[in-house]
Amino acid sequence: MHAEKTNGDTKVSLSSPDVTGHDVETLNEIYSSTSPIDVLRVAVDDLYKGQIALVSSFGAESAILLHMAAQIDTHIPVIFVDTGKLFPETIAYRDKLARQFGLTNIQTIQPDENLLQNKDPNGNLWETDTDGCCHIRKVLPFDKALAPYVAEISGRKRFQNDIRANLGFFEQTDRSIKVNPLINWSPTELADYVIKHDLPRHPLVAKGYPSIGCAPCTSPVAEGEDTRAGRWRGADKTECGIHFVDGKPVRMGG
Ligand code: SF4
Predict the structure, then answer these.
(1) Residues within 6 Å of ligand 1 by CB
(2) pLDDT truncated to tens, each residue of the chain (254 aa)?
(3) Is residue 158 situated within a structural domain?
(4) Ligand 1 atom closest to Cα of 240?
(5) What is the rounded CA–CA span in Å between residue 224 and residue 151?
(6) 107 lies in which domain range?
(7) Exposed/middle/buried for 114, CB within 10 Å: 0-12, 13-18, 19+?
(8) Domain count of the chain?
(9) Which of 240, 242, 251, 252 to mutate to test the pocket of ligand 1 (most atoms within 8 A of CB)?
(10) Residue 239 lies in a domain
């Protein structure tokens, strides 16, 4: 790993032992002023080449990261968990983006059938136990799908909520290295990227859904509300599962 990446006037050497050793603090320092697509390129082409997957919900802002990834490698593994409770519009949007961006390695993962039979035979666990439902329909399928990879790419943004406020480009979790190329971007920067590249919008955005998860747990958001206010509305829940960062339990995005 001896390549160099140019970031404006700054040349970043990728031969540092700290880089190859996945020290996230060092990585965050080195790449602090790097653009999202260059962070993604470094992660995909150098740091974790062949050992990284992109996690996508094919939600409201997913097109941005998928569009960037497709410019780097159209065969990058894209992990998409179909919980069995998604909006049909999300499935159609997945297919549309795959066609338009030329993505050839979208892996649609479903929950374990036996587990569903045992824990959620009537498909209504979400009514009484959202954490339990997310665990069998999202967290376990993700854990299984991501097990072969040392790193995963996430579309999380710092502005989305307090839990994400301290995240950097690189993050060590109990499972892997998480790469968050869009972490610094504001809603305006995201919107500008969509316009500049004329990216297709998720059809539910125009109907008042700025954040889109499973149909039973997502509602439209009113003017002035947090963009994720429609997720698990009325419940004390903002993310879909629990993982550990620096030994502390944190919820993972969904
Ligand atoms: S978001 Fe709702 S329906 Fe989807 S897995 Fe979680 S609790 Fe179940």
Answers:
(1) 83, 85, 126, 130, 133-134, 137-138, 213-214, 216-217, 240
(2) 333 444 433 344 443 434 446 689 999 999 999 999 999 999 999 999 999 999 999 999 999 999 999 999 999 999 999 999 999 999 999 999 999 999 999 999 999 999 999 999 999 999 999 999 999 999 999 999 999 999 999 998 887 766 666 789 999 988 789 999 999 999 899 999 999 999 999 999 999 998 899 999 998 887 777 777 777 666 666 666 544 444 444 445 45
(3) yes
(4) 6
(5) 35
(6) 17-202
(7) exposed
(8) 1
(9) 240
(10) no
Ligand 1 center–CA 214 separation, angstroms? 6
Q: How far is CA 240 from the centre of its chain?
A: 12
CATH of residue 41: 3.40.50.620
- Which protein residue's CA is at the shortest distance from atom 4 of ligand 1? 214
11 within domain boundaries: no
| Nearest residue to 197 (alpha-carbon basis) of 48, 1, 28, 37 | 37
User: Is-catalytic flag, 240?
Assistant: yes
- The verdict on residue 53 lying in a domain is yes
Identify the three-state secondary structure at position 130. Answer: helix
